[in-house]
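Aim 2, interim progress: modelling of the glycine-bound target.
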Amino acid sequence: VGGGVIGLSIAWRAAQAGFDVTAADPDPGQGASHAAAGMLTPVSEAAYTEKELFGLGATSLARYPAFAAELTGATGRPTGFRLTGTLQVGYDHDDLAVIDELRDLHDSLGVPGQRLTGRECRRLEPMLDPAVRGGLLAEADGSVDPRQLTRALLAAVDRAGVRMIRQPVTRIEGRTARLADGTEAGADWVVLAAGWNSAAIDGLPAGAVPPVRPVKGQILRLRGPAGFLTRSVRGVIRGSSVYLVPREDGELVVGATQEELGEDTRVTAGGLWELLRDARALVPGLTELEFTEAVARLRPGTPDNGPILGPGPADGRAGGLVLATGHFRNGVLLTPVTADAIVGYLTSGQLPEVAAHFTIERFAGGSA
Ligand code: GLY
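Predicted structure of the complex, ligand included:
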């Protein structure tokens, strides 16, 4: 249930493992996957309290080269996967303190990160503002183009024999999913991967409803000369965080707002102004680039920012239900590891160790 990068990659891997797979989504790839920038950075998106999430992200990043190569090999389609690194930069004393904290986090997690002066940052990225005073380079980070990834996954599931139903699932009861037109589909397993919508599906018993909420992100796309930036650049400007993710063909993705406004997906003047204001502070020359698109979508947020993976509650009331949702800011990064973990569970009845922390059980007892 759900045809974003998470649902499609699970469908692909499950079909490869020999399952007979039906996937349902009214508009595959048009939810959060459509907006995502595709930055693959396990450290920058994890906080001190999120060590398990960092471990999951690092495992997924390590699997990306083989995952992307296999997908392209199977379909002939690119994914835009590149390992070009992330440069986190800062201006003033407070920003540099944030960068030093980030370096300490890198050290504590055993991730190589190189502290740079402002001049060293500009040597790597000449378009940076001269006022940038320092930075931290995470060379092992990568990026992927989520729209190319989605198209490749759609081709892969098609070739693997997955049946795609272009309708929303409105209800899941036991091992049966009801579609919007009232028809029902039965299965041995029902994998719920509907992003922020996962909590809105009727019929799930108490304790099996994933605690996900919509967290709006507005993001914009610019186009300029290839090589305008060579790696992802992030910065905190007066407390608000902005990132710029370049693609090989000259696209530059600037993101993203983080807003708790329910189901609102309007692109607002204020959202775009903030993004452009902060991006221009980092890279003044981007005002010369062509503006191509602004879009807003809803991330599936969870109470602890980690995804919800594996079977429903341990009491077995939701037998046959498997959750793969709540990936919040990390859905694209966590795609390979999520697909492996869920299909590992379907084939062996055991969630692999790296994912074991992320079952819905961690929210039992009211914290959800
Ligand atoms: N991972 C970036 C974002 O969610 O905005």
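The first strand starts at residue 22 and ends at 24. The pocket of glycine is lined by residues 37, 39, 45, 217, 255-256, 299, 329 (CB under 6 Å).
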